C-alpha cells in the first residue's frame, strides 16, 4: 500500500472522516423525520453563532483539551490511557481540598494552588496503573478502566461520608470561598466587549492553551520527549539504546494523569464552585476521541476539542429548540470516534487509492 503526503495525512484524513460522520449523522436525522440542514443551523447558531454560544463551546472545549492532551502524551509512549475520567475526578478532589483548606485572598493564588492539587491527585491516580504496568506487566488499558470505577466509588464515599457539610442533603462539598472564584470571559477587560453576557468559560482556557504549548515543547523539544516517542515507536529498541522502560512508563503516565486532573480547575473551581458527583461528566472518555481526531498533536487536540465543544453545546441547543433528543449528540460523537478511530485506516486507504489514480493520470 502506498503512502499519503504528510499534509494529507494530517489534514485531509481527519476532514474526510468528519465529512463521512456528518453524512451518516444526516441520514440518522432523516430517519427520525427531521431536516438535517435545519438541525445543523440550530447547532451552528447555538454553539458558534453568538458570543454567548461561543462561551459555552469554549467552556466544554477547555475540559476536552486537558483530557485530550492526557491521552496524547500517553499515546506517544505507546500507552493507551483511558483512565482520564477517573483521573479527572480525583483531580476534582484535589481542587476541592485545596479550595476548602484556606480562605484564599485572591483567585490567582487559589488557581495556582488548586492547579497543583488537581495535577498531583490526577498524577497519583495514574501512577498506580503505571506501576502495575511497569513492574507487574498488568495491561494499562485494563487497569485504567478499573480505576475509573474505583475513582467514581471513592468520590461518592468522600462526598457522602467525609466532605458533605452537616445538614446538607445532596452529596457535594460546601461551596468554595469567594476568593477562589475564577473570572469568566465576560469579566475580563477587553474580552467583556465580546462576551457581554455571563458565560461559564473562564480563565482556565488560557491554562489549557498553555498546556498545549507545554506538551508540544515536552514531546518535540526535550530529551525526555524524545525518549518517550522512541519508547512508543519500539520499546525493545529504546531499551537497547539505554532508555529505562520503567522510568518512561511512570513519568509518562504521571504527566498524563496530571493533565487529566487539571481539567477539574475548569468545571469544579471555575463553574460549579464546589465538588459534586460525576464532576468529569464524561470528558475523560471524550479526550480519547479528541486525541484521535487531533492526530495526537497539541494543535490538533486544540482544534478537535473545539469541535467536540461545538457538538456538546450544539446538541444541548437541539434539546432546547427542536424535537430531536439531546442524546443525538452522543450518536454524532460516536460516529466521529468511529471514523477517526476504528475506521481511520479505511479512510487512509481510500485516499491512498485516490492519490494513486491521480498520479497515474498525471504520468
Word description of this protein:
The chain has 363 residues and is mostly helical. It has a domain at 61-305: ABC transporter involved in vitamin B12 uptake, BtuC. Helix content is 73%, strand content 0%. It contains 15 helices and no strands. The chain has helices at 6-31, 36-47, 51-76, 84-101, 107-136, 140-162, 204-221, 223-233, 235-240, 245-262, 264-272, 283-293, 298-321, 328-342, 344-362. Helix 1 (6-31) runs antiparallel to helix 14 (328-342) and helix 7 packs across helix 8. 46% of the residues are buried. The model has no long low-confidence stretch (mean pLDDT 92).
Q: Largest sheet, described in full?
A: none
Helical stretch tally: 15
Distance from N terminus to C terminus (CA atoms, Å) equals 19 Å
Fraction of residues in H or I helices: over 70%
CATH architecture of the domain at 61-305: Orthogonal Bundle
CATH topology of the domain at 61-305: ABC transporter involved in vitamin B12 uptake, BtuC
Q: Proportion of β residues?
A: under 5%
Q: What structural category characterises the helix and strand content?
A: mainly alpha
Keywords:
15 helices, 363 residues, ABC transporter involved in vitamin B12 uptake, BtuC, single chain, 0% strand, 73% helix
Task: Give the helix/strand layout.
Layout (H helix, E strand, L loop, with lengths): L5 H26 L4 H12 L3 H26 L7 H18 L5 H30 L3 H23 L41 H18 L1 H11 L1 H6 L4 H18 L1 H9 L10 H11 L4 H24 L6 H15 L1 H19 L1
Helix pairs in contact: 1-14, 1-15, 2-13, 3-7, 3-10, 3-12, 3-13, 4-5, 4-6, 4-10, 4-11, 4-12, 5-6, 5-10, 7-8, 7-13, 8-10, 12-13, 12-14, 13-14, 14-15
Amino acid at each position: 500500500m502506498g503512502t499519503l503526503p504528510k499534509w494529507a495525512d494530517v489534514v485531509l484524513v481527519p476532514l474526510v472522516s468528519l465529512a463521512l460522520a456528518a453524512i451518516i449523522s444526516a441520514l440518522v436525522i432523516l430517519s427520525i423525520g427531521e431536516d438535517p440542514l435545519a438541525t445543523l443551523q440550530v447547532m451552528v447558531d447555538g454553539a458558534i453563532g453568538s458570543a454567548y454560544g461561543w462561551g459555552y463551546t469554549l467552556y466544554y472545549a477547555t475540559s476536552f483539551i486537558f483530557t485530550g492532551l492526557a491521552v496524547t502524551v500517553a499515546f506517544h509512549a505507546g500507552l493507551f490511557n483511558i483512565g482520564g475520567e477517573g483521573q479527572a475526578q480525583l483531580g476534582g478532589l484535589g481542587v476541592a481540598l485545596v479550595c476548602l483548606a484556606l480562605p484564599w485572598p485572591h483567585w490567582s493564588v487559589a488557581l495556582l494552588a488548586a492547579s497543583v492539587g488537581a495535577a498531583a491527585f490526577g498524577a497519583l491516580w495514574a501512577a498506580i496503573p503505571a506501576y502495575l504496568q511497569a513492574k507487574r506487566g498488568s495491561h494499562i488499558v485494563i487497569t485504567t478502566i478499573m480505576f475509573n470505577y474505583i475513582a467514581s466509588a471513592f468520590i461518592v464515599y468522600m462526598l457522602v461520608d467525609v466532605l458533605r457539610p452537616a445538614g446538607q442533603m445532596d452529596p457535594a462539598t460546601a461551596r468554595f470561598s469567594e476568593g477562589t472564584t475564577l473570572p469568566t470571559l465576560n469579566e475580563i477587560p477587553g474580552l467583556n466587549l465580546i462576551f457581554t453576557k455571563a458565560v461559564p468559560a473562564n480563565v482556565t482556557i488560557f491554562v489549557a492553551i498553555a498546556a498545549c504549548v507545554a506538551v508540544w515543547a515536552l514531546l518535540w523539544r526535550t530529551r525526555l520527549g524524545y525518549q518517550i516517542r522512541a519508547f512508543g515507536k519500539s520499546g525493545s529498541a529504546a531499551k537497547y539504546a539505554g532508555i529505562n522502560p520503567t522510568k518512561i512508563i511512570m513519568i509518562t503516565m504521571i504527566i498524563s494523569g496530571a493533565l487529566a486532573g487539571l481539567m477539574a480547575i475548569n468545571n469544579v473551581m471555575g463553574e460549579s464552585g464546589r465538588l459534586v458527583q460525576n464532576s468529569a461528566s464524561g470528558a475523560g472518555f471524550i479526550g480519547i476521541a479528541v486525541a484521535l481526531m487531533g492526530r495526537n498533536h497539541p494543535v490538533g487536540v486544540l482544534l478537535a476539542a473545539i469541535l467536540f465543544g461545538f457538538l456538546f453545546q450544539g446538541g444541548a441547543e437541539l434539546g432546547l429548540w427542536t424535537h430531536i433528543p439531546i442524546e443525538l449528540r452522543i450518536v454524532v460523537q460516536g460516529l466521529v470516534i468511529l471514523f477517526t478511530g476504528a475506521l481511520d485506516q479505511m479512510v487512509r486507504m481510500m485516499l491512498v487509492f485516490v492519490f494513486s489514480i491521480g498520479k497515474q493520470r498525471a504520468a
